[in-house]
Specification:
Elements: H1 8-23, H2 29-48, H3 54-67, H4 77-105, E1 115-120, H5 126-143, E2 154-160, H6 165-174
Length: about 180
């Protein structure tokens, strides 16, 4: 046929510098995405601070969520909020950096259909938010590319975290 078949890894390595250069500046889409995550965290925290004693309860949970989060059961909303305020944006950023590195080395999983992600114990789903945003950003950028590149966004995403408080908090954060 004379045409070299498309290889995801080759395309990733060849495209990474341009795509990642677009994501790095302060005015980049990835900065806007991280800012949106921070604003969502702030909005959730502010909604919960309207009841008497809520701020004190979240403040009391800050220490344990910083140093002993593996031993917490996260059944209390205050624990989930304290963990989210301290760690969500940081973990979101770390996962984004890992995805960028995987792309640069040609190892980012690209699928034409059904890309499944399981976030196990990373707190209030920062990996899911980062994966969703990264793949959407990459797809939008690639669709403007002159090459015929087609792959799916993350289509099947699940978080596995212990603690009843996470479900409600994640729903609020996603809204």
């Amino acid at each position: 046929h004379g045409r070299d078949p498309w290889r995801a890894g080759r395309w990733e390595r060849a495209s990474a510098a341009t795509f990642l250069g677009r994501r790095r500046p302060d005015s980049s889409f990835s900065t806007w995405q991280l800012q949106t995550v921070c604003e969502a965290v702030d909005a959730v925290i502010r909604r919960h601070m309207t009841t008497v004693g809520a701020a004190d309860a979240v403040a009391a949970a800050l220490g344990p969520t910083r140093v002993a989060c593996d031993s917490l059961d996260f059944t209390l909303t205050e624990q989930a909020l304290a963990y989210m305020v301290q760690h969500l944006a940081d973990r979101y950023g770390r996962v984004s950096q890992v995805l960028e590195r995987l792309l640069a080395t040609g190892h980012l999983p690209l699928r034409k259909s059904r890309l499944t992600v399981l976030d196990v114990g990373a707190g209030p789903a920062p990996a899911l938010y980062a994966v969703h945003d990264f793949y959407d950003d990459l797809r939008a950028w690639a669709s403007g590319d002159s090459r015929d590149v087609e792959f799916t966004s993350a289509t099947d995403m699940h978080a596995l975290d212990r603690g009843a408080a996470w479900d409600r908090i994640l729903h609020e954060l996603s809204e």
